[in-house]
Amino acid sequence: MKSVVRSTRLMKFRAPAVAVMMACLASSTIAQTVGDDGDMPSAALDLPKDMTFFGKSDPNVRKATAVINGTIITGTDIDQRLALIVAANGGKVADEERERLRLQVLRNLIDETLQIQEAAANDIKIDKAEIDDSYNRVAANFRQSPEQFSVYLRQQGSSPASIKRQIEGELAWSRLLRRNVQPFVNVGEEEVKSVVDRLNAAKGTDEFRIGEIYLSASPENAQQISANAHNIIEQIQKGGSFQAYARQFSEASTAAVGGDLGWVRPAQLPDELAQAAGGMQVGQIAGPVPVPGGFSIIYLMDKRQVLTADPRDALMSLKQLSINFAPGTSREQATTKASAFANATQQIKGCGAANDVGRSLGADVVDNDNVKVRDLPPQLQEMLLKLQIGEATPPFGSVAEGVRVLVLCGRDDPQSAGTPSFEQIQAQMEDDRVNKRARIYLRDLRRDAVIDYN
Question: Where in the numbering of this chain does the PpiC domain appear (predicted)?
Answer without folding.
Answer: 205-302
